[in-house]
Design brief:
- The chain is mostly helical and 225 residues long.
- It has seven helices and no strands.
- Helix 3 runs antiparallel to helix 4.
């Protein structure tokens, strides 16, 4: 029977790691969703630093590539406003819920495990929907970065020529996005679902509930005051 005196001792390390990663992903997701909404709701005018021709010639290739990538992303989002706006709203709301749910679960709040499971699944489904719907946005970013890099001599391979070099750099960008998707949606959310459904995690929350029942109402409850 789980200990009533020290339920935190039953908290598995992989559960702690999974919830910390979810908290970080949720924080970045909320920031990204808020930024996208701010752009989509406004005049959709690019910031001055992202305007074509505003790149600093002395900037490093990494900085220049980041500016070109972000400019292409925002322009592509604006062209797909009808799809991008509701997805950005959902990203903002679900990411905020992910931050709250993972924090509550990590702190051992009663009933937080079930909430965290639902929120993780919802964020994973949203990530899958975003991946399918926003494919043209990723393609626009990859094409812009590849064309700009080759134009400025950053990705030209002598044996291939310009067109083949652009295609090679573009393919690299596409695969980088696929790896990011695998690490985020599959890795983080899949790992969170694994951690939340393990027997040791169930025992931890059972101990939390038992300790709360033995001591009466406390901060272990996730319900609002």
């Amino acid at each position: 029977m789980p200990s009533l005196t020290a339920p935190h001792k039953l908290r598995p390390w992989y559960f702690v790691l999974a919830m910390c990663l979810c908290w970080v992903v949720g924080l970045f997701g909320a920031t990204s969703g808020c930024s996208n909404l701010s752009y989509l709701r406004g005049s959709q005018r690019l910031p001055s630093i992202l305007e074509p021709g505003a790149e600093d010639p002395s900037a490093s290739p990494i900085v220049r590539s980041g500016i070109v990538r972000e400019r292409a992303r925002l322009q592509a989002l604006g062209e797909r406003h009808r799809q991008a706006f509701p997805l950005s709203v959902a990203q903002l709301l679900l990411s905020m819920l992910l931050v709250l749910a993972s924090g509550a679960a990590l702190g051992g709040r009663r009933h937080a495990r079930n909430l965290a499971l639902q929120v993780v699944i919802a964020n994973a489904l949203l990530g899958l929907a975003d991946w399918v719907v926003m494919g043209p946005v990723r393609d626009a970013m990859a094409s812009a970065v590849a064309a700009d890099g080759v134009e400025h001599g950053l990705g030209v391979l002598p044996d291939l020529g310009r067109e083949a070099s652009v295609q090679l750099v573009r393919d690299f960008q596409v695969w980088a996005e696929r790896i990011r998707f695998g690490l985020l949606e599959v890795g983080v959310f899949g790992g969170a679902l694994f951690a939340l459904t393990r027997q040791r995690t169930r025992q931890f929350f059972a101990a939390v509930a038992a300790a709360a029942d033995s001591s009466g109402p406390s901060d272990s409850d996730i319900s609002p005051p």
